[in-house]
Design brief:
The chain is of the alpha+beta class. The protein has 2 domains: about 120 residues, 3-Layer(aba) Sandwich (Aminopeptidase); about 160 residues, 3-Layer(aba) Sandwich (Aminopeptidase). Strands 1, 2, 3, 4, 5, 6, 7, 8, 9, 10, 11, 12 and 15 form a 13-stranded mixed sheet that branches. Strand 2 and strand 3 form a beta hairpin. The radius of gyration is 20 Å and the shape is elongated.
Length: about 300
């Protein structure tokens, strides 16, 4: 019979050994201050089966509580029955402490088989919330990039390639801060919330391996990108953007091209570009841009127990 056990962060990390940095105890502990408590739960019978990390707030247990996604981690490959049993135990656990559970799974591209099994189990046991649409670039597509981008995107890329742009990887702390400053200004100009301060970025990148990139024009920083190494085969684009007065130069088309080109020369398979919906509501401009530069969509499911 399967049982649920609340364990320490150290035990969880050693036992479950998550493949994805966002699903590790180390990442959860880095963000402990954002919740009232953290629950590290392990599900086992004759052997360890699954684990999940939940952040406790006044109203709910959240997975994730300070990451793009959460959900179960499997200790080796598990059958659907094991996931069903774990969800039943998780629901009972939450009810005993008077909390609901809110889960956001990774985009299906991360692990189509395991995420599909979680989807099946959660939709039978809980309430499905509005799904989001996430985008990624399949790096093997770069070999025929001119065939996967739109006609207008080709024109914009050709325009940007004629401009005096310099693309570089930011290696020093000062260069990385310059990349962040472009993002900060981009969000300020657009009236969007920037969730992470520079200090938070520094603390996070002390744990999470990362890449920073700058795109300059005539010696001035006009666009940048920050990428986290979340899995061996998949990195996630955390932030990217350009300064408004550079838009006519088409820096984002060139930035996308240079990023895809850079990572196509590595062993990486997928660059996760992130969601283009919020609570299921689409940002059509963002969707159009990502699709125009060759990105593919995949669903990101949300549930409540």
């Amino acid at each position: 019979m399967m049982k649920i056990e609340r364990v320490s962060a150290t035990y969880y990390e050693q036992t479950i050994q998550p493949r994805n940095i966002f699903l590790t105890a180390s990442f959860a502990e880095l963000n402990r201050h954002k919740v009232n408590d953290i629950h590290y739960l392990v599900f086992s019978d004759s052997r360890t089966r699954l684990g999940i990390i939940l952040g406790e707030t006044d109203s709910a247990l959240h997975s994730p509580f300070s990451a793009p996604y959460g959900g179960f981690c499997q200790h080796h490959t598990q059958r659907l029955q094991h996931i069903d049993n774990a969800i039943e135990l998780l629901g009972d656990y939450a009810r005993r402490i008077g909390k609901k559970v809110e889960i956001a799974l990774p985009p299906s591209v991360y692990d189509e088989t395991f995420i599909s099994m979680q989807l099946s189990a959660f939709q039978r046991s809980g309430h499905i919330l509005p799904a989001d649409l996430s985008y990624h670039f399949q790096l093997s597509d770069f070999d025929f990039y001119d065939r996967v981008i739109g006609v207008k995107a080709k024109q914009k890329l050709r325009h940007s390639l004629r401009e005096d742009f310099v693309f570089s990887k930011a290696e020093t702390p000062l260069a990385k801060q310059r990349a962040y400053e472009v993002i900060r200004r981009n969000r300020e100009e657009k009236g969007y919330l920037l969730r992470m301060s520079w200090e938070e970025i520094k603390k996070t990148t002390a744990l999470v391996e990362s890449d920073f990139f700058l795109l300059s024009h005539s010696g001035r920083d006009v666009a940048s990108a920050m990428v986290f190494h979340v899995e061996p085969d998949i990195y996630q684009l955390i932030y990217w953007g350009n300064i408004n007065d550079s838009a006519s130069l088409r820096p984002m088309n060139l930035l996308a091209y240079r990023l895809f080109e850079y990572y196509s020369h590595t062993s990486l398979k997928i660059l996760d570009i992130g969601p283009s919906t919020t609570d299921g509501i689409p940002n059509y401009g963002l969707i159009d841009f990502k699709e125009s530069v060759g990105c593919r969509p995949s669903p990101k499911f949300h549930f409540e127990l």
